[in-house]
């Protein structure tokens, strides 16, 4: 059985002629399928629902947002820095059977859940074409 591959890439800077001024963090994702839908799970701690945006262009779903630092701390005050604060983004190229007109998203308990219905597989029918005499 051929395994489907969903391509996941960093989101592209959409601001024309503006260099990326800050580091952009990656968003960890789990993506799985059921018989009827594709499910994307993204744990996003420390972010409110208002700080997360979803955008769909053709077959590319982009998740982006910003994790705001609760307070400014000078670099020399840190013992260690493992948490990412600042903008984050992720672009997902959806499979062909994703019904991009049927997407729902929920954000609760710091977990973003996106559900995309799958379109029924197209049946390949053979069409007979008559040749003109």
Offer a few descriptive terms:
single chain; 133 residues; mainly beta; Immunoglobulin-like; five-stranded mixed sheet; four-stranded antiparallel sheet; 9 strands; 43% strand; elongated
Major sheet summary line: 5 strands, mixed
- Overall tally of structural domains: 1
In round numbers, the mean pLDDT is 83
- Please estimate the helix content: under 10%
Count of DSSP H/I helices: 0
Oligomer: single chain
CATH class: Mainly Beta
What's the SSE pattern? Answer: EEEEEEEEE
Ranges where pLDDT stays below 50 over 5 or more residues in a row are 13-22
Summarize the structure in words:
There is one protein chain. This protein is an all-beta fold. The protein has a single domain, classed as Immunoglobulin-like. 0% of the residues lie in helices and 43% in strands. It has no helices and nine strands. Strands 1, 2, 5, 6 and 7 form a five-stranded mixed sheet that branches.
Could you provide a short overview of the structure?
This protein has strands at 7-9, 25-26, 30-33, 37-43, 52-57, 60-67, 86-93, 98-108, 111-118.
What is the strand and helix layout of this fold?
Elements: E1 7-9, E2 25-26, E3 30-33, E4 37-43, E5 52-57, E6 60-67, E7 86-93, E8 98-108, E9 111-118
Parallel strand pairs: 2-7
Antiparallel strand pairs: 1-7, 3-4, 4-9, 5-6, 6-7, 8-9
